[in-house]
Amino acid sequence: MTDLADIDMEFVQLGGTGIRTSELQFGTWRFGKETEEGNVEIGEKRAHKLLDAYAEAGGRYIDTADVYGGGESERWIGDWLADRDRERYTIASKIFWQIRDGDPNSRGTNRKNIRHRIDALLDRLGTDYVDVLYIHRWDDQTDAREMMKTLNGLVEDGKVHYLGASTLRPDAWKVARANQIARNEGWEPFSVLQPRYNLVDREIEGDYLEMARHEDLAVCPWSPLGQGFLTGKYTREEGLTGESRAAESGRFADAYLTEENFDVHDELDAVAEEVDASPAQTALAWLMHRDGVTAPIVGARTTEQLEENLAAATIDLSEEQVDRLTEAKGGPYAGL
Ligand SMILES: NC(=O)c1ccc[n+]([C@@H]2O[C@H](COP(=O)([O-])OP(=O)(O)OC[C@H]3O[C@@H](n4cnc5c(N)ncnc54)[C@H](OP(=O)(O)O)[C@@H]3O)[C@@H](O)[C@H]2O)c1
């Protein structure tokens, strides 16, 4: 296992913004997250150990959202940051999902919801500003002009430095149009994108990545390991062969344990062996070598997993290996 301090992560430019930040970001979705059986995936003590490990490897970009763990994720990050130099870290959070039953205005990117939630979020994080505020999903019920004007106000108030859009579907035209409105009005546009992207989930290839390149947007992929599918602990024959909380979700097997995905995994195993790395490290290294990708958001449930994943920063792939991995998933998106 690589020593954490030896990883010494590099800084990369965050798209067209003026800041440089870690080549691997750390995701905290599972801090305080309850499983369907009522277990907590990552408790406070382990959350702090994971943050320690990430920082020791040189990591400086922490990704959260106001709904992760019902606010616990932000609270635990805030407690951890209180003993550190906050200025050294890039902190990103997100707003969107409904927070009050029966109140439609507590969801989305309407002015009332955004203005109410930003202060609560900063309070939990114990900071005056977040470096990046994402809209967690696109809200088709709020006009883009209302959303961009409200978000611009947060930047002008100094509560947010940069704006991001996190998307499930490749809503390329919506982001481009919102940015056009913002520029026409002299408002802050989106600078960072957070889409799902990994060796087996390739829906952003094509228009979305092309739009990101055209707009000079940072691209920070979530679920870079397909929620653990790309780590080698699932097989065609037996399904899960190790321990996993992620796989407790009923939808995981249907989405990931398919013949087509196992074919991709076969190629991943072959390349991993050639470069003497694990499948997880190789899958992350592929993303880091991919044109248009700024920095994947690494997730991990244990410090062992995190140590393994962060060492992806030390792995070099040849162009031929990157191409083989790219082409392992057939279909209309493979040829970028
Ligand atoms: N914007 C959005 O809508 C959105 C959505 C999802 C995620 N995100 C962000 O992206 C981050 C990462 O997403 P993700 O958690 O889905 O990432 P991921 O890397 O695809 O999956 C992480 C999970 O895979 C398993 N795993 C990771 N490394 C492993 C290893 N070396 N060996 C074995 N198993 C390993 C662990 O789950 P098990 O051990 O339980 O199998 C771990 O929790 C999140 O924390 C969050 O910040 C954003």
TrEMBL record:
GO annotations of cellular component type: cytosol
Keyword Nucleotide-binding appears in the UniProt entry: no
Superkingdom field: Archaea
Pfam families: Aldo_ket_red
Domain NADP-dependent oxidoreductase: 23-328
Keyword terms: Oxidoreductase
GO MF: oxidoreductase activity
PANTHER family tied to this protein: NAD(P)-LINKED OXIDOREDUCTASE SUPERFAMILY PROTEIN, NADH-SPECIFIC METHYLGLYOXAL REDUCTASE-RELATED
Name of the protein in its database record: Aldo/keto reductase
Organism: Halobaculum saliterrae
